[in-house]
Every structure is written in structure tokens, then in C-alpha cells.
Amino acid sequence: MSGRRLYTAANLVLLCTLSSSVFATENAEDKREIQHVLRKIQASAQKMNYSGTFVYQQASQIRTSRITHYLDSAGETEKLEILDGKPREYIRRNDEVSCYLPDSKTIQVEKDVSQESFPALLTQNAQYLPDFYTIRKGEMSRVAGLECQTYSLEPKDGFRYGYRLCAEKSSGLMLRAQTVNPKNEVIEQIAFTQLQVNEIDKNKLRPSFPNVSQWRIENLTVQSNIHSGWVVKALPAGFTKTKELKRVIPSPASTSNASSAGNAGSASANATANKTAKSHQVIQMMFSDGLAAMSVFIEPYSEGRTEGSLQQGAMTIMGKRQGEYWLTVVGEVPVSAIRQVMNSIELKTNK
Hints:
Residues 227-346 form the MucB/RseB C-terminal domain. The chain is mainly β. The protein has helices spanning 28-47, 252-258, 264-271, 335-342, and strands at residues 21-22, 50-58, 61-72, 75-82, 88-93, 96-101, 106-110, 133-143, 146-155, 162-168, 174-180, 186-197, 216-219, 221-223, 230-232, 240-249, 280-288, 293-300, 308-312, 315-322, 325-331, 345-347.
């Protein structure tokens, strides 16, 4: 869920067996209905004011965070506080995110960032999800003391996982998202344990640390909306490129501090950091089917890297040398999707 995905209690009671109410996605009227539901889920995360604590569980790892979201005439402001491990905070103002790292008194700034983190997991092409998932409307449930409507998304191919979503019954705000494998086992989940809506204190959006005006600033985004010449020739059906940019991968020390809880995009970037001592620039291409996300990172090859793949929960990471370059593909998708992307990355040269 990413990377892309910039954040995430695991509810101890998993969803009951969903009812057999199915949106017949081949039927135009039913397809419009589910598209309306998907738009409502995403719009509520962007337009509502809310503050809550949520837990993200990936395999054996559990991380707790607190998010505060506020919308006014100046746009969106969102603060994410990581409550486990080393203290750190992310504050997003529209499409710019500042990560506050108190240990090093550093602020890492990324520009041209889209809101694709919990509870705003759906992206702009979410209207096409019924083409690649069978979507079932399930029973009513409760998360963080609030009633919510459950939905299951069953993949129509082997290039994506299934999902179980629970959206607050009136507003549509996503309260819980679970990722399931082909055996219908939950391999990743993220859910609110406490949530307050509407009346939000704007002071909660400020950094919690003192004297941040004196901290060092690192700009991680070098160039946005680039066309590097690198292409993925065989994307799994439904995935489209949402962004391409040149960014800085921090040194391992900074990366460890800045590790994001549940954000696929940030997790993808962190996973590509090699064991060298210096920060370095990479090209990053991001892809999404409206819910599942993948990122491709391209950088100069350096000694000491080992080709192979790693899987944890829903996250798969694969690294490979290609000539003078090192390629990394990261995503919360099955290894089949990661492998197909990796094997079709090419650099198109102008002749």
C-alpha cells in the first residue's frame, strides 16, 4: 500500500466472510455505482478534516502512527507522526513533504508528492479498478468504534493481490485496508484504532520539535516530470506510469531515520539505498493500477551489490545489474509482476 505509498491497529478481529453481493463490473450501471464508491472513498481522505492513530502490520512488523489532516482555502496540510522507534514526523503541504529528523536536526524535503498513503490509498486512475478486480460489497463492520461498509477486491490475474477495504458508512473515509494473498490470507493490514473528524486543532499540524528553523534542510527532489529515456515495455495490464522524477537517495544513516510506516513510495525509496556512505541521485518511475503500486529505481552500478529478490508481507524488492546501471523494482505486488517489470526495463537512445 506505498510507497506508495508516503502511512498505518491492526484490528484483531479480521473481516467476516463477505456476502455474495457482487458488483457485476461488466454491467455499465453497476460499474458506475462502484466507481462512485471508489471516488467517495478517495475524496473523503482529501477533503475531510480528521486526526487519528493507526497501526500498520507488515509480516511480523507492527508500526504505530498518528495522522492529522486539514483542508482550508490554502489547500491540504497533513502531519504524520511515527510513534515507534526513532522519533520523526512528516508534514505535507499540498504536494510538498518535509520529513523532520530530530536526531540529526535535519529536514528532508520532497516536492511533487501525491497523496497516496493511508487513508488515501486510491490514485487518480482508481476508476479502472473494476476492470482488473472483481469487487464485492460485504457486510457492515466496526473499526475504531465506527461502523463501516466492507468491500473485497479480488484480482482477475496473478499480477496483483486482493484487498479488503472498510469505509466509514456515511463519509466513505477508509478505516481499514487489508491485503490478501491467493490463499485469502492477510499479509498486510492498516487500520485506525482511534479517529476524530471535523473539529481539528490546527496547532496539531505544526512540528512537535523545538527550534526547527535552525535545522539543516536537504532537498531530495532534484527534478520532477522528467523523460529520462528509460521505459518499461511490458507493464502488467492496468498499471500506468503516474510519475517520473530524479531524486536523491539519502545515505544509509538518513534512510534508517526516515523510514516511513506504511507508505509504499517512501518504503520503495528506502529499500533501494545501498550500503555506501554517500547519498546519490537516482531516476524513479512510479506505476499504479489505482490501488497497487510499483516503483522502478535506476542508478549507476557500484560494487558490492548482490542480485536477487526479497519479500516481506506484501512488499517485494528485486535488484539486478544491467550494464553500467543498477535497477531496483519495488512494489506491494506479487513477485510475478515485479519480475515482468524488471525483465522489460530498457533505455531508449536517440538515433
